[in-house]
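User: Structure please.
Assistant: Input sequence and predicted structure:
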Amino acid sequence: MKKVVLIGGSGTIGTILQKGLKREFDVHSLDINVDENNDNAKKTDAKNFAELIDNIPSGTDVLVNLLSTGNAGSLVNISEMNNMVDVYFKASYNILKAAVELNIPKVVFASSNHVTDYYESGGKSKLGRKINVNDYPYSEGLYGVLKLAVENIGFAFSNQYPLSVINLRIGSVKLNEKKEIYKNIERNRHTWLSEVDTVTLFKDAIISDIEYGTFYGVSDNPDKPWCSDNAKEKLGFISKVNSIDIIN
């Protein structure tokens, strides 16, 4: 059974994955905020490299980078910029470096659809076709820029070390999804990544043998803005529950 460590595992996606992956993997969580009743969770600040190294369990097979500050806005003030750089880029660099030093063969990175949000409006592509991973990644804000930077530094690590790096450009994921999808139904009906599909996508990335790859994470929603064909072809990802299924 592969040992999978979710870094930032107390957030929305981490909560979904802790529950959804535990039948097939030995799942551990590292986060600044952890459930003290979870024996597989350990309070960890990934910005502190020494602390990160010390708290990653021995025998780990996969690190899953789910780090977030909760800010996905456009351009921010200097203080928030510094915080976002620390969390999204510096701590992500720490995770990649830790994988190399501890001989962990794979890092799965929860990137974002905001890497290419310049091409999308209201859940619809402005290109007249689905946005794909070959489109130049124009972002409208710092969040998308930093997510792209981590994708790129992951490529450098994968190129220079025996390390597999999988980037998943996640769509809209929320807990209590039936309630949440109605909050912004116009966009969500197109951009949703259901809980079931979130677990499936990350599982496919964890077990894949790809050295490096970037994929959009979106359910098979009507008129979805992003092309996920390569996720199906290379990871074997098949959407099981889409936004229409949730609404109905």
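The longest strand covers residues 106-112.
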